[in-house]
Amino acid sequence: MAKKSKKQQSGGTPATVALTAAGVDFTVHSYDHDPSHPSYGGEAAEAMGVSPDRVFKTLVADVDGTLTVAVVPVAGSLDLKALASAVGGKRAAMADPALAERTTGYVRGGISPLGQRKRLATVLDDSATTHTTICVSAGRRGLEVELSPTDLATLTGAVLAPIGRG
User: What DSSP string describes 50-70?
Assistant: First the structure.
């Protein structure tokens, strides 16, 4: 696993470029992605040796016809009803994966809440605030970025709400 500070990061993904432009502190973690692993987030937590409670997955859902990003711990799952409620909606369902990829500019398993092609409403599970730093996808499989949950919420305009289920 290689770690790079923002000063060492060159080029990068739209997510790391956005973080650098914003001037926030972050660390990039890379690992060799195993396509046969059953869980992208679980694989990231294992590869980095980080608790699954601190590694968050980025999911794209359709809330009343509007694509919405949900960021929840890989250790649990997304509560779609809670997500809809957090953004003032009535119904939520997982978005079509191809639509999520086209809209965000990222591939499934590498969708980052940062640097998306089209900025979507974002909800961050409030459990993130119990950690000094959390890890989210840096924009491709095998690449994670570690940053403070406050910086993530600020940069994405995220609403904090209890949307994860353990």
Answer: --TTTBEEEEEEEETTEEEEE
> Would you say the C-alpha torsion 25, 23, 106, 32 has a positive or negative sign?
negative
What whole-number percentage of the chain has pLDDT above 70?
93
Distance of CA 20 to the CA centre of its chain: 17
Quote the strand ranges of 19-142, DSSP E.
27-30, 56-63, 66-73, 77-78, 92-94, 121-125, 134-140
How far apart (Å, rounded) are the C-alpha atoms in residues 156 and 115? 9
Contacts of 146 (CB under 8 A, 6+ apart): 26, 27, 28, 29, 133, 134, 135
Integer angstrom CA distances of residue 151 from 88, 98, 134, 158 = 24, 28, 10, 10
Q: Which residues pair with 130 in a beta bridge?
A: none
Over residues 15-38, the pLDDT tens digits come to 999 999 999 999 999 998 888 888
Within 13 A of 107's CA, how many CA atoms are on the CB side?
6
Helix (H, G, I), strand (E, B) or coil at 149: helix
Report the distance separating Cα 83 and Cα 65, nearest Å: 13
